[in-house]
Please model this.
Amino acid sequence: KWLAQLDSDSYFERCDAQKAIVREAGTGLAKVKEALARRRLGVRGRLHAIWIVAGGGEPSAIDDLLKLAESDPEPRVRAQAVRAIVDLADPVLANHRLDAPRGDAALAARLAEIGKGQIGKGQDDKVLLEACVALGRLRWGDTARWLKENLVKPDPPLAHAAMQALRRSGNWPAALPFLDLPESNPLRATALAAVAERYEPAVVDGLMERLKVEVNLSRRQEYAELLARVHKQPGPWVYWGYRPPPRPANTVVWGRTESIAVALDRALESFEPSARLVLLGGMQREQAPVRAETLTKWLDGERDADRVAAILSGHRVVGTTSDTATCNCWNGATAAARRTGT
Model:
């Protein structure tokens, strides 16, 4: 009776049947597994049966669900099975610790194979999405290669899942080269989102190197903005309130703070005027230092009144090397203000 009711048109009746089978413990679970093996359950019944198997507490639960994820003809059932598998295998849930180690690499590889090649096949995209989420939760180190093979034209949910999976994999040497791909490749946008606000030396070093050698102005602006946001780390968390003000600048110095400041200052010297002003605004927002010598050179050649006004009103001169440098900067500022009528 309960097995038949798992395929009811009524969601409430299906839930009642699932609860009744779970109450029968081992007997109910055995009957559900037998029904799955003999293909006696419809799509709705199999969707509920997945959670009965997952919650049964048997050591073979993951293997049973893997067989279903690999062989069931219905994409919704395969996707549900992948979701249940990673709920059982997620290292955070299994170890009850947020700083848990990586998940089972062999299991991740098998889930990756289940999701492989599913994109562009209608409902099969559900399987790819769940596989991508699962790889992120397991923190699989080979995620970058898998995404390169399977991420073709992702919709917004899949693109977000890919970004999280790439970030959680922690394999930055494999992920950073995606930044060098053409704009049309979705992996580049995925990598840009993944490296944002990552206080990790490998990420910062990769961005600084690209900022130094990149010739495309748009890309250089992107890298400079990403670096400005990680100039310092956030301070201790405080309650943000019901209507919080804009996010304040970070305050905690870390191992790459000084090198980021140097890289941004060099970029400020080499950018064209309009891009330079945008970068100056980002540095002001994050309270990154600007050398007086850099502003002096800029003001000496600046002829646009709006830009001079923005420089004078919007930025403190910090990080100067001497009192003479400060005096030179403000002398240049005065001359630029008079020259442009600011």
